[in-house]
Amino acid sequence: MTSASGHRRRVVHPGAWWMWATAMAVAIATTTNPVLLALVLAVVVLTVVARRPYAPWARSLRLYAALGAFVVVSRVVLHVLVGMKTSETIVLPLPQVELPEWARGITLLGPVGLGGLVGAFLEGLRLATMLFCFGAANALANPKRLLAATPPAVRDIGTATVIALSVAPQLVESVQRVRKARVLRGDARRATRVKQVALPVLHDTLDRSISLAASMEARGYGRRAERPFVTRFVIGVLMLGGALLTCVGVYGTMQGSGAEGVVSDVPWWTTAPVLVVGIVASVVGVACAGRSMRRTRYRRDPWGLLEWAVVACGIVTLVAVRAVLEDQPDARNLSVSPLAMPVVPLWLPLALVPALLPAFFTPEPERPRRTSAPERTLDDAAPGRDARALRGATS
């Protein structure tokens, strides 16, 4: 990616965008305040619109918006079908279906209250907002550059993840190439048959896969250095033990911190060291395993002050939002029984201001160059609609 002067324009490291989006998702993971969720959505949308590149893979935010809407609708429908109906204000007087004895405790249908509907909607909106945050990271960070930035030890997992993230954009590009080829041949009709669209797209996908496999094999992709048995054993113990200690530490920390729905007499500071030891062991294991991977990079994505600033904006927002919610517990969740207006402290919108700063201090995406098309004549025109248009203009 180069600018008009021939220099490569500075691009934010994909890992920075993913950390920023993860911090935004964690900030609203324990709240159902609709005002806070709406503000986070607004911040994410503004950042994506301002800094997403001009590429097909960057146009995937609509897909995540549709997925979020599906999550909200599914959560409301599940509440109507099998949810607990405890609200006094009935809005849907549905009949209750009696279930067999083995399904005791499950209520099918029944009168649906306003408070239950609002609660189900807000829970679905919280999950949809978290999905939207990760969709924003997918729209801001190039999946191919994300693969190059993954640690060598988790290269296989990173490859599978990036392939899963880039399937839809690659299919969109293939469909666009097929349609453009049909137009150049003079066939401007909208192709709807499988033979007209699916088969050319499949052929194009197979050709690109074969070319990619040959390119990766020629560059020695996936080769490993020889390691003694003791080294392999120590690395395995570090990675597996670190993962287990991390899981135990996260569970114990959530219990001791008084998370919603979790009660325990174990204080969080007794399990926090276990979490720290697990994270350190995992990092050391990944670093040691990565030394056996031999790979080259044409251009390394730099990680500098710009990336640290983006990550810091996300972390500051996370800490500020959590601090406000801890200071004002009534602002964490909306009261649905009885139904009340959401509590919005003055500091809550201000806590989201740092998350919006990357939309202004990060480099603007480079716009695609527009080359002037040469003047066309009747002899150069493609058959079909273009030729008929030129004949009409010259007659």
What does this 3D model show about the protein?
The chain is mainly α. The protein folds into 2 domains: 14-224 and 293-369, no CATH class; 226-292. It contains 14 helices and 2 strands. It has helices at 14-27, 34-51, 61-82, 114-140, 143-149, 155-184, 194-218, 229-256, 268-290, 305-327, 347-351, 353-356, 358-361, 385-394, and strands spanning 90-97, 108-113. It has a two-stranded antiparallel sheet with strand order 1-2. Helix 1 packs parallel to helix 10, helix 3 packs antiparallel against helix 4 and helix 8 packs antiparallel against helix 9. The longest helix is centred in the middle third of the chain and has 30 residues, at 155-184. The chain starts with 13 loop residues before the first helix and ends with a helix. 23% of the residues are buried.
